[in-house]
Structure formats: structure tokens, C-alpha cells
Amino acid sequence: MTLVAGIDSSTQSCKVVIRDADTGALIRSGRASHPEGTEVDPEFWWIALQEAITQAGGLDDVAAISVGGQQHGMVVLDATGAVIRPALLWNDTRSAQAARDIITEAGDGDNEAGAAYWAQRTGTLPVSSITLTKLRWLKDNEPENAAKVAAVCLPHDWLSWRLAGYGPGSGAEGLATLGTDRSDASGTGYYRAAEKSYDLKSLEQHLGHAPILPTVAGPLESIGRTATGALIGPGAGDNAAAGLGVGATVGDVVMSLGTSGTVFAVADTPSVDTSGLVAGFADATGNYLPLVCTLNATRIFDATANLLRVSLAELNDLALSATPGSDGLTLLPYFDGERTPNLPDATGSLHGITRANYTAPNLARSAVEAIICSLADGLRALEAQGVQAQRIILVGGGAQSTAVQQIAAQVLGLPIIVPAPGEYVADGAARQAAGVLSGAFPQWTQDSTEVPAAEATPHVLERYRSLVSSQWLEK
Predict the structure, then answer these.
(1) CB-based contacts of 41: which residues, under 8 Å, 6+ apart?
(2) Residues 286-298: pLDDT tens digits?
(3) Residue 233 and residue 224: Cα distance in Å, rounded?
(4) pLDDT tens, 322-354?
(5) How far is it, in rounded angstroms, from Cα 298 to Cα 232?
(6) Residues 425, 258: Cα–Cα separation, whole Å
(7) Catalytic residue positions, numbered
(8) Which of 20, 121, 366, 468 qualifies as a cystine partner to 331, CB 3.0-4.6 A?
(9) H/E/C letters for each residue in 407-465?
(10) Which SS3 state, helix, strand or coil, does residue 466 take?
(11) CB neighbours (10 Å) of residue 249?
């Protein structure tokens, strides 16, 4: 039996799965936590990885390994290969002003012109999560550190580099071996996925000079070996790795229901969205990964369950007992503002209340319908970029709700696939490792639930969008 390992180094933790390269069967696994915060010394990731590897029984018998990880994080290295300062993670917002400055400067003071410039240049508008804005922040606020930067890499790049035996003291020779993949590089703000090249001019402008950058490897290329001889795959950003883990292909749209929501598609052409709603990322197979985020997802279920004093399982049953459309009750779920549509100051609201429809089942169903409608807005943004959805792959904690599955099939009018719960990012990394080993991605089978497209309920989505427009978009 040939074994491969997949790693998911996320914001919260590090997971390692070891699988049979031929069948994908899980052999063993391990997990370790990361420290909290929006800036973290990368050494903590390395310590957690070692702990997770130990829990998983080590890597001595593994033939290939690949790392999936949180996107955008800024890891800056000096000329010796040492980390200069703690990494700024994707969720560190101190670079928000830097993002605004980058856009206005590109448009010569015109934000719309600057947005169009960046959408055409890299497919992604600079926002606080993007690596380029963090480098601009570094130049503006820590110029001494910025001047020391000899190389910039991302969290998964740095871990792959360490697995290959490099680290502090490696010097220029070691820095030259840094490697990455298209999916993670496309989230930096200085990589043009459609042209397969870095935008060094932007780095020179916003960091002050062009440092060494990881070589961008192809989907099935090795970027090195571990001390025991295992091949190291190029890795992937977390969303791209998750797409690989659930077997998403062109025509698939993945909807993830976690604390927040994510909608992304595998597409064969790049996206250019000047509104900034759709991030034009690349995927882990050589295609593209246009992606939309929403701020509100399963926390709305939690809040509604708490209001009704029921468990989430009971909320599911209540929602299924109500009729489609919740008898006219419509929730706008912008409890924490919203990103899609871009309404950071919005609040949630409940509409269409009558004495007849103000019931627990209708409240429960309106919460589920609201989140599906919110994700449908993300899908609409993808479709405006040319995505043609053929089926929805539903993942995340909220995806296991029968009410979510059935209501999604009704509101979206598309077949729904719900993979069995798992470590999708680590699984995708393991599948990539197996592909690097054999030269082709393996066709691993996975357990899943199939929900056929149901009789559509367009009135639910139409009423939702009409209320969003009248309450927020027309203001």
C-alpha cells in the first residue's frame, strides 16, 4: 500500500490525514491547535504541524505530501531565511487603509478607475485580507522591517519549505527554493493567474522593492522532498484544496455554510469583476476559482434557535414543518452587516409579519430560506462572470441540516450534493499528493447525499431580493 499525506494548516489548527494513494481510504490522522490572533509567529504553525504529524503516526512511510493552508497571510523573510516579524493573517484588518490607497492611486484618485485597473490586472481588488495590502502597510508603518524583506511567501509555502529542510540560516540558496501553486499565488494581489506571472511592478511600488517570490509550480509538479525522500506537492489555498477534496469540476459550484458563507465555482476562464464581489482566484487543477464571500451563515441558525429556545435539530424539524415561503415571512439576515451585497452597515430585519404567520415553524424556515437566498446572491454574482452552474456541492457544518439541503434544492432549482463530513482541505491536499506521485489526480470515491432539484420556489428568492433592494440597495 502506497501512502500519501495531506495537511490543512488553517487559522485555528493543523490537521494531517494519511490516505491510501490508490483508494483514498483514511489510514490515520492527527490534529493540533494554533494560537489565536490575527498575527502569529509562523514557528507556532511548524510546532503544531510536528504535533499533528506525531499524532498521525509520523511520515516515514509516506511517499508524497502536500500542504493546503489559509490564504493571503504575509510571511516575510530576511536574507538569512529568518522570519522578520509575526505573519499578518487574512483576517487582520489593519491594512484596510492601505487597500484604499492602492486602489485610488491606481485610478489617479478615481476609485472606480482603480477598481477596473485591478480587476483587469490580477482579477482581484485589493482589500485588507490580500497580501499586497499587508506589504503596503508594512512599508508605511514599519519601514525598517520592510527594508529587510528578502523574500515573501504564504503560510502553506513556508510550511512546505520547512518540510523540505529549509528555514532560518538557509540564506539566498534556500530562499531560491521556495515554491507555491497558482491557487494561493492568485490571492496575493501580485500574481496574474491568467498570464501565469507575478506583477513585480506592483511589489516594487507598494513594498519598495521586488523580493524573492516562490516559484509557481504546476498542479502536479513537485517542489521538493522531505528528509525521508517523500515528494512535496505544490500545495493549495484552502478553498482550492477543499474543491479538490470534494471532487469539484467545471460546472460545479461549492457552497460552504460555516460561521460565514463561501460560494465558489470551478471555471475554465478567469473572471474580471470590477465591483469586487467576485475574487478571481485560480484553482488547484489548472482552472479558475471565482469566489464570493458572505458574512452571515450558520450564526443566523444559532441566533434563531436561541430565540425559539430549541436545539439546532429541533430548528431543522420546525423549518421542515412550514410551507415554502414561510407564509410570507421573510428574514434579511444581515446581522453582522454584509459583504455580498456590499452592505457593511446593514442590519437584519424581519418582514411580512402577520398574526397568522408569526409562528415558530415560519420563523425557523425564514432563517434557513434567508441564508440560502444570501448564498444565491453569491451564485448570481458568479453567473454574471460566466459561470454556468450544473450542480451545487454543499459543505460546512450547516450543510448537514436536512432543512438546508431541501430548501437549497427548492430555492436554487439545482441538484444538491452533500459530501460526508470530513477534512476537505486536508483531503484535497492528500489527493494532490497522490497526483504528484502518479502524474494524474486519482478518482477517489466518497460518500455523499444526493438531493435532486426540487420544484422551484422562485417567489421566495424574488421576495427576498425585492426587500433587499427596497431597504438597502436603493438608499
Answers:
(1) 83, 86, 87
(2) 999 999 999 899 9
(3) 8
(4) 999 999 999 999 998 888 888 888 999 999 999
(5) 35
(6) 14
(7) 238
(8) 366
(9) HHHHHHCCCEEEECCCCHHHHHHHHHHHHHHHCCCCCCCCCEEEECCCCCCHHHHHHHH
(10) helix
(11) 14
